[in-house]
Amino acid sequence: MQHIALKPGDPHRWLAVSAPEEIEFLVKESEVLTGEPGRIFIIAGADRLTYRVLWYPTGLRVEHLDLRGHTLNVQHLLPWEFIDHSVIDALHAGQLFTAAVRRRHAADGGSHARR
After folding, report:
1. Residue-wise pLDDT tens digits, 31-54
2. Considering the entire predicted model, what is its pTM?
3. Residue ranges of the domains in the chain?
4. Can you tell me the distance from the alpha carbon of 84 to that of 10, in angstroms, rounded to the nearest whole number?
5. Rounded Cα–Cα distance for residues 27 and 29 (Å)
6. CA 20, CA 9: separation in Å to the nearest integer?
7. Distances (CA, A) of 100 to 26, 49, 82, 115
8. Reduced 3-state DSSP string for 61-91
9. Strand partners, 53
């Protein structure tokens, strides 16, 4: 995966998603490291569309988000239906990105808190 900045001064390290198989890993990685469900993906086009993808054993939940992170619409998809979604289209065009995930700090309830 490549690291880029989507706009000057952006504090996030953005990772380019280069294969559909990476999405499941990235979603699960984010859930484990942050304790929050799903992962945010950005389509770096003119509209800069934002999606939250949640991965379940039976399929996916894809939420289209507004600029404030509120859900505009939700799609429940089977894995073979997801390959026709605009998120995958953006991936194939080299326009799909996600922020690098940081582990929760000890102050946030991690296991390395000082005594």
Report:
1. 999 999 999 999 998 889 999 999
2. 0.79
3. 14-104
4. 30
5. 5
6. 29
7. 9, 18, 23, 30
8. EEEEECCCCCEEEEEEECHHHHCCCHHHHHH
9. 39, 62
